[in-house]
Amino acid sequence: MTIGVMYNSRYGGFALSDEAVAEYNKRKAEGMPSAAYSARDIQRSNPLMVQIVRELGSRANGMFSDIQIELIEDRYEHHVLIDEYDGSETVIIDYKGYILAEVRKTLQSTSLSSDEKISCMNQLDWSLMNNY
Asked: Per residue, what are the HEC states of the chain?
């Protein structure tokens, strides 16, 4: 399964339009107590905002922004880095962080036997350690 991650593809910096943030607040408030979110409060992989960016297209762009969506495997969701140079961004997966988190989770598991832990470790794609 994949998830979308928003990033700015041009120089100038990541910024969502007022229209995009207002639409997010409107949809977020449906059936819930209202809370006003600013663009800074919204995570880059927030599924609702990713959907709104898809729907609004260029109208979701803030000043000097060109918001794009990169699809990544959902298992890497908590290991996404945004590399930025002068406002232009690239989505990077921290594969080493992902592998280390999986090792930690496996070793700390109380429901797995030693043999099952070894099996889990052997199933990891250790070649990812050579990326980024």
From this structure: CEEEEEEECCCCCCCECHHHHHHHHHHHHCCCCCCCCCHHHCCCCCHHHHHHHHHHHHHHECCCCCEEEEEEEHHHHHHEEEEEECCEEEEEECHHHHHHHHHHHHHHCCCCCHHHHHHHHHHCCHHHHHCC
